Amino acid sequence: MTPAGLAPSDPAAPDAARDPGASAAAVPAPAEDPGTPHAAAEGPGPLLTAGFSADVYAISETQVLRRYRSGRDAGPEAELMRYALAHGFPVPKAVHVGGPDLVLERLHGPTLLQALAAGVTSLHEGAHIMTDLHSKLHRIPAPPAWAPSSPTDWPHVSGGDVVVHLDLHPGNIVLSEAHGPMLVDWANARTGTAELDVALSALILAEVAVDAGGEYSEAARVLLAAFLAGTHLDVRPVLAEAAHVRANDPALVAGERELLGEAVGLVRSMENVTRD
Ligand SMILES: Nc1ncnc2c1ncn2[C@@H]1O[C@H](COP(=O)(O)OP(=O)(O)OP(=O)(O)O)[C@@H](O)[C@H]1O
Ligand SMILES: [Mg+2]
To answer: Are 163 and 261 members of one domain?
Structure first.
């Protein structure tokens, strides 16, 4: 997730025309045109959103298709999502996976980002939702046999004793009408340490906060402060590692990478105030 992506213009999930008869087996073949962001190919139903790496289509009232444009294998993240769900974590059910296609339980409701931007959810409550999801996730032990689809996959994080998401931010949290806050976009999920996961969330918020011209700079700063105050973990020891992971995020554009140093400084200074 990029700071630019942390904007309220993130499309909602419009309930357009549906195909209630569609099923996982009816999902068409993957797009032929990988790697072109926002160039959605034909899907099994209306396109809900086109993110950096994936298109999300409505299949029916109860299911969506998330499809990687690059052809990347969604198998490993589906496995982690199912594992987390089995541990009681709030994640949509992975109904079917086949290559880059992942059929998911459809959630209805705004993202936390949209709710914050609309003033429906307070910054304090938003921070609480983020810290709560982190602490629930980090109670899940690393699955012994799990491995990413390719050892060269970004992010190059290895080891750690718990499940981590590494992209937990308001744009990846859906406030489901039926289930409450649910975590989506498990592209970066793997095994790792809780500290690194929390540090990445902090850095993502900080990148928005230090973007002085940005519309959400002030709100992101308040959200970050509340988020750091609400977590029991001290992220300072892993900030450099988190910045390295962020700097190598293929979804980061040039201007955003330049904000990283300042973002690290902001998180460090807030932590110094909170923890020393
Ligand atoms: N199971 C779901 N039900 C309903 N909507 C969903 C579901 N999963 C994802 N979405 C919607 O699609 C959006 C994009 O999904 P996701 O973050 O997984 O894709 P992405 O390509 O990684 O996007 P980005 O680059 O913006 O992070 C989410 O913000 C959410 O609004
Ligand atoms: Mg996302």
So the answer is: yes
Residues 74 and 187 placed together within one structural domain of the fold: no
Residues 154 and 223 in one domain: yes
Residue owning the nearest CA to atom 8 of ligand 1: 184
Query: What protein residues have CB closer than 5 angstroms to ion ligand 2?
Result: 172, 185
Mean pLDDT of 196-211: 97
The verdict on whether omega for the bond into residue 155 sits within 30 degrees of 0, i.e. cis, is: yes
Instruction: Give me the pLDDT at residue 158, please.
Output: 65
User: Which pLDDT tens digit goes with each residue over 163-201?
Assistant: 999 999 999 999 999 999 999 999 999 999 999 999 999
Nearest to 159 by CA among 194, 120, 210, 183: 194
Are 248 and 188 found together in one domain?
Answer: yes
Characterise 166 by phi-psi region: left (phi > 0), alpha (psi -120 to 50), beta (else).
left
Burial of 124 (0-12, 13-18, 19+ CB in 10 A): middle
Answer with the one of 82, 105, 128 that is the final residue of a domain: 105
> Which domain, by its residues, includes 218?
112-275
Q: How many domains does the chain have?
A: 2
Confidence grade of residue 151 (pLDDT, cut at 50, 70, 90): low
Whether residue 264 contacts residue 245, with contact meaning beta carbons closer than 8 Å, is answered with: no
pLDDT tens for 46-103 read 999 998 899 999 999 999 999 999 999 999 999 999 999 999 999 999 999 999 999 9
Probe target for ligand 1 pocket from 66, 167, 253, with the most ligand atoms within 8 Å of CB: 66
How many Å lie between the centroid of ligand 2 and the Cα of residue 272? Answer: 30
Strands 101-105 and 47-50: unpaired
Claim to verify: residue 79 and residue 131 sit in the same structural domain: no
